[in-house]
């Protein structure tokens, strides 16, 4: 696997999303409890960007439909529970999900070396 230089180590902060491009993809970099994490900047529900989503305790929430994902593992924690930040009643969530089943985020191996962040591509 090739490594791609994507950022300065100092630019990747705890609980903040840094968007970079690598291998033709938009990727979110952040730190969770000091660990460097990298996920695709694309919610699997509708493909909308996640970078503006709120990050709390290592979880990013899609700003469009409210799905939540673990930033280190990519695991889906909650699927489609809001529209434009407004909570949805339980009965309407499957309708807004458009029949799509919960999916995880794609993750990437990120490494720090010599003050730089590298992603495996």
From TrEMBL:
InterPro entries: Rieske_2Fe-2S (IPR017941), Rieske_2Fe-2S_sf (IPR036922). Residues 4-119 form the Rieske domain. Its cofactor is [2Fe-2S] cluster. Keywords: 2Fe-2S, Iron, Iron-sulfur, Metal-binding. Gene3D superfamilies: Rieske [2Fe-2S] iron-sulphur domain. GO terms for molecular function: 2 iron, 2 sulfur cluster binding; metal ion binding. It holds the Pfam family Rieske. PROSITE patterns: RIESKE. It comes from the Bacteria. Belongs to the bacterial ring-hydroxylating dioxygenase ferredoxin component family. PANTHER family: FERREDOXIN-RELATED, RIESKE DOMAIN-CONTAINING PROTEIN. This is Rieske (2Fe-2S) protein.
